Amino acid sequence: MTTSPIWTRCRSGLDRCSCSPTIGRPREGVTFWQVSPPVALERWNRMGLGRVYVDGGALISDFLGQGLIDDLVLTKVPVLLGDGLPLFHPIPLSTRLRLEAVKTWPSGFVNLTYSRVKKGG
Nearest Cα to 33, choosing from 7, 2, 59, 62? Predict the structure, then answer.
């Protein structure tokens, strides 16, 4: 079981949901879980959700490590840190990605959208 808490915020009428390891104060439309990524995915499927936004280094790494991420958006920021934390925590498998889109912003930010290459694809 993941040690990262998962909070889920869903808007009624939408097939989208977001989750993050950061727990805020209790509020309407937000549920809190501490379950493994496969259990969370099963719950979201039962809820009829088509897409879920997963955020947070440890949390996203838990999902990546179990092959549960289909799409990934990375944002590059035009700042050289020189030192810092890795984007992802160590994961037990390699994941091949296909670049689907690139979007640039006037600020210099660049969004890179990838899809996971499925086995045999």
Answer: 7
The gap from C-alpha 93 to its chain's centroid, in whole angstroms, comes to: 16
Cα–Cα dist 65/48, whole Å:
24
What CATH number is given for 6-116 in this structure? Answer: 3.40.430.10
- pLDDT single digits (tens) 63-78: 888 888 899 999 999 9
Strand order, beta sheet including 71-76: 71-76, 110-116, 97-104
CB-based burial of residue 98 (10 Å sphere; 0-12 exposed, 13-18 middle, 19+ buried)?
exposed
Residues forming beta bridges with residue 53, ordered by sequence position: 18
Confidence of residue 21 (pLDDT cuts 50, 70, 90): low
Asked if residue 100 lies in contact with residue 74, where contact means CB atoms within 8 angstroms, the answer is no
* Amino acid at position 54, single letter: V
Q: How much is the pTM?
A: 0.72
